[in-house]
Amino acid sequence: MNVESKEWLERNLQSNKSVQIILTYAQSIDGCIAGRDKQQLLLSGKQSMEMTHALRSISDAIVVGIGTVLNEDPGLNARIPTLAPLNDQPTPIIIDPHLRTPLTAKVISNYTKGVGKAPIVLTSVERCNEDKRQALEGAGVRVEQILQGDGQWRREYFTHLSHVYSFKRVMIEGGATVIKGLLSSDGVVDELVVTVSPVLIGSAGLSIISDKVPSLRHKDSRVFGKDVVFIASTQ
Ligand SMILES: NC(=O)C1=CN([C@@H]2O[C@H](COP(=O)(O)OP(=O)(O)OC[C@H]3O[C@@H](n4cnc5c(N)ncnc54)[C@H](OP(=O)(O)O)[C@@H]3O)[C@@H](O)[C@H]2O)C=CC1
Ligand SMILES: Nc1nc(O)c(N)c(N[C@@H]2O[C@H](COP(=O)(O)O)[C@@H](O)[C@H]2O)n1
């Protein structure tokens, strides 16, 4: 399944961009990515979760917001069905303007244990807690002070990372604030890979429905067990 998933993803994610930005997440039929009070939900079934890990293994970097790190402490390595070799692991990137990433974060211990690459933290150009920065760098984290203080998304963040770290494909996994911000920003995201799980969460759930959204062009969709995965491009 993993090989098949990789082939399917590679075929539908061909790109001639210098850096390709893929937004990916799992949602309920009614557009929620988490439950009440941001409770983490296992929306993806076995097969679609394998697809997500296949996407991780063919990506150079995987991005989440600090809210997701504080809420769930994700590992962000490719390990399903089995741990991918270090060369095939994506570099974890945390969007963290106020440098709140805990030194105990799993992305850091994964690096220490050799089951993940050294993470990068993107923080604000305006302020930086120097002690925290040094502590993170001491733990092997690369801290990049590139976020502008206005909370807007800019493609330049990723072109900069592409120049410095040679990233060609970056996948962004969430959470809700990041997804909504990216969906309402022009020209940042190239493709969406969205897993839709056949459940309804209701109005208490954490929705990613945004006021402003891009037009999408359907590329392909496929059933993975109980779930459907859609690939679409934004232009
Ligand atoms: N089903 C799925 O596929 C997924 C679900 N999730 C769910 O998402 C939820 C977490 O979402 P949420 O709490 O919104 O957290 P996010 O992970 O979206 O992180 C939000 C924070 O990231 C920073 N940030 C976001 N955008 C920008 C920007 N453009 N510039 C600068 N900083 C930015 C801000 O930090 P600051 O506050 O410091 O300014 C903001 O508060 C959890 O419930 C989790 O379960 C997460 C990933 C995937
Ligand atoms: N693909 C997918 N399906 C779900 O049902 C999910 N809840 C998520 N969540 C994302 O995966 C992260 C956890 O990653 P690790 O397993 O710890 O590596 C979580 O933080 C979300 O980003 N994704």
From TrEMBL:
GO terms for biological process: riboflavin biosynthetic process. It holds the Pfam family RibD_C. One of its GO terms (molecular function) is 5-amino-6-(5-phosphoribosylamino)uracil reductase activity. It catalyses: 2,5-diamino-6-(1-D-ribitylamino)pyrimidin-4(3H)-one 5'-phosphate + NADP(+) = 2,5-diamino-6-(1-D-ribosylamino)pyrimidin-4(3H)-one 5'-phosphate + NADPH + H(+); 2,5-diamino-6-(1-D-ribitylamino)pyrimidin-4(3H)-one 5'-phosphate + NAD(+) = 2,5-diamino-6-(1-D-ribosylamino)pyrimidin-4(3H)-one 5'-phosphate + NADH + H(+). Its EC number is 1.1.1.302. Residues 21-230 form the Bacterial bifunctional deaminase-reductase C-terminal domain. It is an enzyme of class 1 (oxidoreductase). It comes from the Eukaryota. The keyword Oxidoreductase applies. This is 2,5-diamino-6-ribosylamino-4(3H)-pyrimidinone 5'-phosphate reductase. It comes from Wallemia hederae.
